[in-house]
Specification:
This protein is mainly alpha-helical. It is 67% helix and 0% strand. Residues 1-38, 208-234 are annotated as: Disordered.
């Protein structure tokens, strides 16, 4: 009796079903796309391609340009100061993160029982960035954005290297990854920058409405300048 066999096509199909499919690679986002995802509270992962200098420039540069073209730039001095404080705090946080990495590297041969204490001592002695100083003239000219960008540039290359070699999110056994620490630091800047952008839009819209209703723009601008000089946000 002839032996019945499956066709070659059927055998191939069966093997194909058993063969595991390759995992779909995660999507690759540009730094601008990652920024938008972060602001929308969508998942992001930073790696060695992340450029802290460019990130700060992209956030504060357009805001500084808008303020510099405003008739009364100091109207936004309070909100600019909030952005300065946020950038300084975020850069300080990342500087400590990098100091901890360097301290752990130096303490690799320290007995495990003393290693934590040694790391903390080295971090405490590590240089911390001084807060950037912004003047009224910097606000008027838009120079404050360049000052903040230069402030962050000191740590940009080291942070990119750390992100390139760090364990990605979801694989750190319950601890925050370097990417997540970076994301949290940038969110502080996002909050202050968003508040400044909203204030800019509000003042610009108010100015347009004032002009449309025929109200004296000179009087309105003089009032805003008076409040700005007194440190009061209209």
């Amino acid at each position: 009796m002839p032996v019945r066999t499956r066709s070659l096509t059927a055998l191939d199909a069966a093997r194909a079903r058993r063969k595991p499919r390759p995992a779909t690679p995660p999507p690759t986002y540009s730094q601008a796309e990652l920024r938008e995802r972060r602001r929308k509270h969508l998942p992001v992962t930073y790696d060695g391609r992340f450029d802290l200098t460019e990130e700060i420039r992209a956030i504060v540069g357009p805001l500084a340009d808008r303020i510099a073209t405003d008739p009364h730039p100091l109207t936004f001095a309070v909100q600019v100061d909030d952005v300065v404080v946020a950038v300084a705090g975020s850069v300080r946080t990342l500087a400590v993160l990098l100091a901890e990495r360097e301290a752990r590297r130096r303490c690799q041969n320290v007995p495990i029982g003393n290693r934590g204490q040694a790391v903390r001592a080295l971090v405490a002695l590590a240089d911390k960035p001084a807060d950037p100083e912004i003047t009224d003239d910097d606000i008027r000219s838009g120079r404050w954005a360049a000052i903040l960008t230069e402030h962050a540039a000191t740590y940009s290359a080291d942070l990119a290297d750390y992100l390139a070699h760090a364990i990605p999110p979801g694989q750190t056994r319950g601890l925050l990854s370097v990417s997540e620490h970076t994301e949290d630091a940038l969110r502080e800047i996002d909050t202050a920058a968003t508040n400044l952008a909203r204030r800019l839009s509000y003042v610009e819209n108010l100015r347009e409405q004032t002009n449309d209703t025929g109200t004296s723009s000179t009087e309105a601008e003089a009032a805003r300048q008076t409040l700005a000089d007194l440190g009061i946000t209209p």
